[in-house]
Give the backbone structure.
Amino acid sequence: MTETRVERKERTRRAILDAALELCEDSSLVALSLRQVAGRVGIVPTGFYRHFDSIEALGLALVDESFVSLRAMLRDVRRVEAGGTAPVSFAAIVDRSVDTLVSHVHAQRAHFAFIARERTAGPPSVREAIRHEIELCERELATDLARLPGPDAWSTEDLRILSNLIVTAMVHTAESLVAVAGRPEAERRLTQTARTQLRMVIIGALQWRSGQE
Amino acid sequence: MTETRVERKERTRRAILDAALELCEDSSLVALSLRQVAGRVGIVPTGFYRHFDSIEALGLALVDESFVSLRAMLRDVRRVEAGGTAPVSFAAIVDRSVDTLVSHVHAQRAHFAFIARERTAGPPSVREAIRHEIELCERELATDLARLPGPDAWSTEDLRILSNLIVTAMVHTAESLVAVAGRPEAERRLTQTARTQLRMVIIGALQWRSGQE
DNA sequence: ACAATGGGTGAACGTCTGTTCACTCAATAG
DNA sequence: CTATTGAGTGAACAGACGTTCACCCATTGT
């Protein structure tokens, strides 16, 4: 007996999740069939029901899993920001943050691709779940930004708006990184674009209310 | 004879395009079937082939049509910018531009929703077509920005990066506007968010190179 | 007036879909 | 040692799918 019963079940469940993630890579969850997934896993179609009630339930599990990856990235970003005791420039924070994003997209490409795609194309319940998770990320970012030096004049609403802009730009960057796949030249260009954009946004935010309205 | 032959054909073609646009509203092109479309139009499945070779060809036609709407919006934005002979503030330009975006999304909701969705979820050829069209829009915006007063220190690359950021933010705004559908309160909030974000970005871009690097 | 054109029809095909049901048989619990 | 549990099986179903083909017949060009 090399494998207990629950271990075997968990292994099959993982295989289903992985198969689904790969199969919907070039279309969407809404175009994914139970039989395709079962076929790739190597079980009979009916076996699927031992693990999930429906493709939609599978989708929600994939949302959870993907956001574990995304949150791991955010934790890394946060650790970098709060790393040294000495004050670091915004430019340095931006550079390190973008690097962290890039390396996590590399390591978990499928998860980031899944979020980017199903965010707009998934079944309604999946879309809603992703929208909600992203909103939570924005709120977290807002509280992080509030701790940063400089934002004397940022209202709660300003923080929300700024976080939304940054998250939007980063989601778009992740989306593009996934799209360029393995072309290192295009990726370098994208990375530089993301850096510049983040810097521009932060410069604009720092000037906000002092130089405008 | 109240209707010529080509008129009738064109009418059916339009009905197919409209039906497809509505049907894929709550899923995606990749999950759209020829028989669904034919059924809604009121023709037999085979009749579809008189107008399109495949669902994918239909999709590319919808891309064309949707970008006609999007370009109409850009033309409006440009007319507002170049409107008065007197110099206007950036804030005024931003406000008018966002208003133009909102009204066009209202008028052509289905087209904007289609672009936002299929951009990431459509069949590969459709995705590529949309990506290309958006890149063209970014280039157009870059040349417009170059004509604006102030950008003494903007390099060609900076202009590309800035345009990319603005277009990304506006695509995201359009996407959100479509999502809130008919809730005026949420829409007002979104509009205000978009305005503030655009202003922040422009302030940041104006300070660029002078206050950084 | 006559022939050609072409949008729309309806049957038929093979394939794929989700879901049901009764089943096996090794890993577990008592 | 025996009884139970439950992951995986395999047949069967009704329905939807894309695509083919021969066909109809009103609008056209001559």
Q: What stands out?
A: Helices of chain A lie at 5-23, 34-41, 55-81, 90-107, 109-121, 124-147, 156-180, 184-207. Chain A touches chain B at residues 26-28, 30-31, 91, 116-121, 123-124, 131, 158, 160-162, 164-165, 168-169, 172, 175, 179, 193, 196-197, 199-205, 207-208, 211-213 (CB under 8 Å). The first helix of chain A runs from residue 5 to 23. Chain A has two domains: 1-52, 56-207.
